[in-house]
């Protein structure tokens, strides 16, 4: 069975940002894409705002917002780096 270590998330709206936060809280590396203007800034603001609550719920020992990389408009060039893709 393959172990999932890196997840790709397509879209950073409320649902995509929530999936990103969940994956990060479980200690995964997350590559995120979204073509919307300002998507990166909104995503990282959401992560900063939600992180204290995730800490209260309990984080994996490898959990960190720094495990998130915004790759731009498309995940296409990074598909070989991910074990799972969550499209929202």
Automatic annotation (TrEMBL):
Residues 6-87 form the 3-hydroxyacyl-CoA dehydrogenase NAD binding domain. GO terms for molecular function: NAD+ binding. Keywords: Membrane, Transmembrane, Transmembrane helix. The chain crosses the membrane at residues 6-24. It comes from the Eukaryota. GO terms for biological process: fatty acid metabolic process. InterPro entries: 3-OHacyl-CoA_DH_NAD-bd, NAD(P)-bd_dom_sf. This is L-carnitine dehydrogenase.
């Amino acid at each position: 069975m393959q172990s999932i270590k890196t997840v790709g998330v397509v879209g950073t709206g409320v649902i995509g940002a929530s999936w990103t936060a969940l994956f990060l809280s479980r200690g995964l590396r997350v590559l995120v894409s979204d073509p919307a203007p300002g998507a990166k800034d909104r995503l990282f603001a959401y992560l900063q705002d939600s992180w204290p609550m995730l800490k209260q719920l309990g984080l994996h020992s490898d959990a960190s917002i720094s495990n998130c990389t915004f790759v731009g408009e498309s995940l296409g060039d990074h598909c070989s780096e991910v074990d799972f893709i969550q499209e929202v």
